[in-house]
């Protein structure tokens, strides 16, 4: 674990990532998006190395708990909320807890690229459901084909429980997106995110305590957990929000579609998770479906 930490230290102290936090407007928006995606997936790779000490439940608790603490200090959100806003914040936090807990549990069984791609397919398919355009049906079929290839259709066996957890991640991710959009109409983004993450941390806390409650207080584990929280939550959220303010939403969506490909690349480089050609094709199908749906909608508008 110490060897891995030393190998990823440059990612934690990279000047460009520090610039994202201190002066995000000095970085071009596309580069901000790329740095945010790389930061998220490097954080997931670091988290995977923590599983031997804290398990997925403990790692999720550290990520959400420490991430919420950092955001609450940064944002200092007012706690007075309407009943409607409070309900949305709680629901958003529960969705965040489900998404993160099942994602880390899936990571203990399947490669990073597979877990991210299947999870990413959740909100993508939700966005295509109910569309009356035949092109969106085609993109949904392409995304579904990609998921099937990752599930073993291409001849590469996949862990059944791992795939089930990936499916739950997709459900949680879809809920996270839908509830986040609903919540933004009642609570501003940074405030809602900080409060929602605090709710999510409380939801996963029992899983962390049951896994290794005392181990979560180990200084070395806390430092690595803080690194995961910063890489997977604080830095990418800051980068994406700053980028979204300075680029059209369609361009933002196009760049975000590359997330599964970035995850597969980070998994190969940092975790040595080399995927079979059928799995690479599955990731390509999901990325292609996301890009195609986004570009087609821009042409229609």
UniProtKB/TrEMBL annotation:
<feature type="transmembrane region" description="Helical">
    <location>
        <begin position="86"/>
        <end position="106"/>
    </location>
</feature>
<keyword id="KW-1003">Cell membrane</keyword>
<feature type="domain" description="EamA">
    <location>
        <begin position="161"/>
        <end position="292"/>
    </location>
</feature>
<feature type="transmembrane region" description="Helical">
    <location>
        <begin position="112"/>
        <end position="130"/>
    </location>
</feature>
<dbReference type="Pfam" id="PF00892">
    <property type="entry name" value="EamA"/>
</dbReference>
<feature type="transmembrane region" description="Helical">
    <location>
        <begin position="161"/>
        <end position="180"/>
    </location>
</feature>
<dbReference type="InterPro" id="IPR050638">
    <property type="entry name" value="AA-Vitamin_Transporters"/>
</dbReference>
<feature type="transmembrane region" description="Helical">
    <location>
        <begin position="251"/>
        <end position="271"/>
    </location>
</feature>
<feature type="transmembrane region" description="Helical">
    <location>
        <begin position="221"/>
        <end position="239"/>
    </location>
</feature>
<keyword id="KW-1133">Transmembrane helix</keyword>
<feature type="transmembrane region" description="Helical">
    <location>
        <begin position="137"/>
        <end position="155"/>
    </location>
</feature>
<dbReference type="InterPro" id="IPR000620">
    <property type="entry name" value="EamA_dom"/>
</dbReference>
<feature type="transmembrane region" description="Helical">
    <location>
        <begin position="192"/>
        <end position="209"/>
    </location>
</feature>
<comment type="similarity">
    <text>Belongs to the EamA transporter family.</text>
</comment>
<dbReference type="InterPro" id="IPR037185">
    <property type="entry name" value="EmrE-like"/>
</dbReference>
<keyword id="KW-0472">Membrane</keyword>
<protein>
    <submittedName>
        <fullName>EamA family transporter</fullName>
    </submittedName>
</protein>
<feature type="transmembrane region" description="Helical">
    <location>
        <begin position="277"/>
        <end position="296"/>
    </location>
</feature>
<keyword id="KW-0812">Transmembrane</keyword>
């Amino acid at each position: 674990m110490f060897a891995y930490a030393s190998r990823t230290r440059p990612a934690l102290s990279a000047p460009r990532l520090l610039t994202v936090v201190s002066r995000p407007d000095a970085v071009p928006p596309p580069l901000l998006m790329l740095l945010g995606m790389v930061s998220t997936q490097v954080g997931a790779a670091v988290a995977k190395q923590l599983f031997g000490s804290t398990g997925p439940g403990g790692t999720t608790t550290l990520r959400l708990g420490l991430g919420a603490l950092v955001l609450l200090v940064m944002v200092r959100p007012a706690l007075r909320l309407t009943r409607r806003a409070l309900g949305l914040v709680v629901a958003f936090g529960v969705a965040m807890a489900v998404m993160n807990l099942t994602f880390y549990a899936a990571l203990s069984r399947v490669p990073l690229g597979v877990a991210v791609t299947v999870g990413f397919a959740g909100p993508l398919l939700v966005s295509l459901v109910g569309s009356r355009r035949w092109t969106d049906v085609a993109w949904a079929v392409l995304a579904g084909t990609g998921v099937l290839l990752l599930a073993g259709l291409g001849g590469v066996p996949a862990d059944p429980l791992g795939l089930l957890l990936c499916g739950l991640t997709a459900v949680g991710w879809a809920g996270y997106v839908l509830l986040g959009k609903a919540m933004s109409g009642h609570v501003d983004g940074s405030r809602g995110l900080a409060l929602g993450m605090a709710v999510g941390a409380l939801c996963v806390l029992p899983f962390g305590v049951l896994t290794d409650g005392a181990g979560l207080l180990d200084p070395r584990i806390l430092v690595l957990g803080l690194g995961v929280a910063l890489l997977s939550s604080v830095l990418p959220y800051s980068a994406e929000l700053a980028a979204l303010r300075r680029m059209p939403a369609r361009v933002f969506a196009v760049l975000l579609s590359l997330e599964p490909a970035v995850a597969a690349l980070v998994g190969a480089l940092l975790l040595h998770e080399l995927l079979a050609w059928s799995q690479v094709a599955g990731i390509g199908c999901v990325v292609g479906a996301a890009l195609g749906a986004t570009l087609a909608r821009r042409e229609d508008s």
